[in-house]
């Protein structure tokens, strides 16, 4: 894959591409998107509860276990045995969802709950076209 080292526009025009004269550099998506390779993993979302923060059903999340957690970080967590993607309100011990209409839902993290943060979502990738290759990859069984 190649990277064109200039900003691009989503507009359409009849003029020649201004990027035609720019140098194309080799690109590894790992180098571009992953800051801590040994602590980074990928997940795919299911559901619509986080559309208010730009996370949509089917998005691929880049999750970093080494990234610092801050108040209201977007995290992947295990909450009572279930994986979830939520904003983490560390001050009030809440998991926060924001849907497409900007409605906020709060879930308290009580002492009786089983809770752990599995990583901070540092980036997301939106899939615009169906990908058989991605489906095949994601349908593989996890191995220990």
Which structural traits does this protein have?
144 residues; mainly beta; Umud Fragment, subunit A; 7-stranded antiparallel β-sheet; globular; hydrolase
Topology:
Layout: E1 2-4, E2 24-26, H1 29-33, E3 40-44, E4 60-64, E5 73-79, E6 82-89, E7 94-98, E8 104-108, E9 115-125, H2 132-138
Antiparallel strand pairs: 1-2, 3-4, 4-9, 5-6, 5-9, 6-7, 7-8
Question: What do these coordinates show?
Answer:
By secondary structure, this protein is mainly beta. It has one domain: Umud Fragment, subunit A. It has a 7-stranded antiparallel β-sheet, with no helix packed on it. Strand 7 and strand 8 form a beta hairpin. The longest helix has 7 residues. The protein is globular. The relative contact order is 0.18. This is Peptidase S24 and S26 domain protein.
Largest sheet: 7 strands, antiparallel
Q: What gross morphology would you assign? A: globular
Strand percent estimate: 35-45%
Output the CATH topology: Umud Fragment, subunit A
What is the first-to-last residue Cα distance?
31 Å
Per CATH, the architecture is Ribbon
Number of helices: 2
Number of separate structural domains:
1
Side by side, the strands of the main sheet go 3-4-9-5-6-7-8
Summarize the structure.
By secondary structure, the chain is mainly β. 8% of the residues lie in helices and 36% in strands. It has one domain: Umud Fragment, subunit A, CATH 2.10.109.
């Amino acid at each position: 894959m190649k990277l064109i080292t200039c900003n691009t526009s989503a507009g359409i025009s009849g003029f020649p591409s201004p990027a035609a004269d720019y140098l194309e550099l080799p690109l590894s998506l790992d180098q571009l998107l992953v800051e801590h390779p040994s602590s980074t993993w990928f997940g795919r979302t299911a559901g619509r509860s986080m559309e208010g923060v730009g996370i949509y059903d089917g998005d691929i999340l880049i999750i970093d276990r080494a990234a610092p957690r801050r108040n209201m970080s977007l995290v992947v967590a295990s909450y009572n045995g279930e994986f979830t993607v939520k904003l983490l309100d560390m001050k009030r011990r809440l998991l926060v969802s924001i849907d497409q209409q900007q409605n906020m839902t709060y879930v308290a993290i009580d002492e009786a709950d089983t809770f752990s943060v599995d990583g901070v979502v540092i980036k997301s990738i939106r899939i615009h076209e169906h990908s058989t290759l991605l489906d095949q990859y994601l349908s593989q069984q996890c191995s220990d």
